[in-house]
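Slack export, channel: ligand-projects

TW: morning all. Re-posting the request from yesterday since it got buried. We need the structure predicted with the small molecule present, not the apo form. The ligand is flavin mononucleotide; the SMILES is in the block with the sequence. No rush, but it would help planning for next week.
GE: picking it up
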Amino acid sequence: MSMKRLRVLVLVCSTRPNALGPTVGTWLTTALAPTARTLDVDLASVAIGDLHLPFLDEEEHPARGVYQHEHTRRWSETVTGADGFIVVTPEYNYGMPATLKNALDYLSAEWAWKPVGFVSYGNTSAGTRAVQHAKQVTSTLRLVSVGSTVALRIAEAHRQGVFQPAAHHGQAAVDMLEELVRAGHALAPLRDLNGDGATPGPLPGSYVRRLRPDDGPHVTVLQRCCWVDEAIANDTLRLPALRETPDQVQAWLAEWHTTGLWHAGRLLGMIRTIRRGGTLHIGRLAVAPDLRGRGLGRWLLHTAETRHQGCDHLLLTTGTGSVRNLAFYQKQGYAPLPAANSGEVSLRKDLTS
Ligand SMILES: Cc1cc2nc3c(=O)[nH]c(=O)nc-3n(C[C@H](O)[C@H](O)[C@H](O)COP(=O)(O)O)c2cc1C
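GE: finished. pasting the full token output, ligand included:
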């Protein structure tokens, strides 16, 4: 389960002058605002008309992600930054509007593993045929449809000439957002796996990526659990990794280059590095207790060591009572330095050119 604040894009599809779409979009975002606040969701509204997307004019298949035009790059950035979508669509001739199909066709990986909900409107069908039509396309793009829908019959949604859907429609919209957020969090590992910079890890299905400040909650849990053994081995609770608050963890994640090993949304291990002068400092090597003895620590250490560019030696520190760590690091070519602080020992590995 990811803890990241989700960004949900409300996509208003109709572009005709005096279209009903913007009114439906405003009703929706107003109805959802309190729930969005409670669920920690950023709700952003985008009108397809404002994107100024001509009919698809890119030469390459979108799956390649090679975009020639500024309008495509902007659209790609917007969709990449979103964790889920609510599509506000009319029904045109029993189908989705061409504007929606065109906006979907422009991109590929940007849509993958993000939840989508539909708010449709129309005459007798309340736009539901447009939704069925759109789903055939969105599922191809690996957008994941939520079950909750909002379907508005235009005549019934108007009271005294004003667009005012019934309370149950507002509730349906809230239900949709709640489901969308649950799905958005649950799909986060798949988005991660597909995301920029993720590479396969040493265990089947695992992957590695740089940790960001918003991974702070996962890192806090992992290091508190892993450093309990260090506390026992060194007979002290005065270990930063054991005591740091999530805010403190977020602060150093912004500064250090931290590699995280993940599987299905679980942080299995990590290691951090920072270059200072000719020294590559390495620290916070952690592997979840149930996965020790499988070579993951060694794998993480070797991955961290590849960041040595511009450095002539590697430096790390452990507790003087951490007998297992000391043996492990020495086996990996690190030599203990004379102790500077009581209770801690630094180990150095010189790099040969
Ligand atoms: C080109 C066109 C086709 C339409 N086809 C349908 C349709 O198949 N089913 C339906 O219920 N309403 C249909 N309508 C009526 C629309 O639901 C209604 O005009 C709605 O306001 C359109 O959304 P918009 O104002 O945001 O463009 C159609 C309207 C247009 C302009």
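GE: first-pass observations. The mean pLDDT is 95. The chain is about 40% helix and 25% strand.
TW: perfect, thank you
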